[in-house]
Amino acid sequence: MTAHTVVVNSEANARRIAMVESCFGSSGEPLWVPGRVLVGEGVLTKMCRKKPKARQFFLFNDILVYGNIVINKKKYNKQHIIPLEEVKLESLEDDGQFRNGWLIRTSTKSFAVYAATSTEKQEWMAHINKCIEDLLRKSK
């Protein structure tokens, strides 16, 4: 996971979000809203109908966005947006070739993702959980 220095209202943040938008092209939703910050990004392996596939994930302070990789770091499609206040994480035990995984659960869907290393798994889970905590704190 590439974690970004989180600076709200910074030009760098606005540029990063614009870049993510442009990588999805016209098929994606606009991602820039005031106060939204790109927290981190990286490639995770997502279980899709029993077959693992690499997906590009973007963690913002309020949503998790992922898509298919068409050209790495340049073009993605099939954008999915998951509001973080609905997300619950659940660590998965290593199982044969499936290691460093966790479940991303929402009321409508759940899926397993796997990081390349256990450090990366810990970083992703910690960053996502922190974003969720901050969101829930703000909404009280």
Automatic annotation (TrEMBL):
<feature type="domain" description="PH">
    <location>
        <begin position="37"/>
        <end position="133"/>
    </location>
</feature>
<dbReference type="InterPro" id="IPR051765">
    <property type="entry name" value="PH_domain-containing_F"/>
</dbReference>
<dbReference type="InterPro" id="IPR037871">
    <property type="entry name" value="PH_Phafin"/>
</dbReference>
<dbReference type="InterPro" id="IPR011993">
    <property type="entry name" value="PH-like_dom_sf"/>
</dbReference>
<protein>
    <recommendedName>
        <fullName>PH domain-containing protein</fullName>
    </recommendedName>
</protein>
<dbReference type="Pfam" id="PF22697">
    <property type="entry name" value="SOS1_NGEF_PH"/>
</dbReference>
<dbReference type="InterPro" id="IPR055251">
    <property type="entry name" value="SOS1_NGEF_PH"/>
</dbReference>
<dbReference type="InterPro" id="IPR001849">
    <property type="entry name" value="PH_domain"/>
</dbReference>
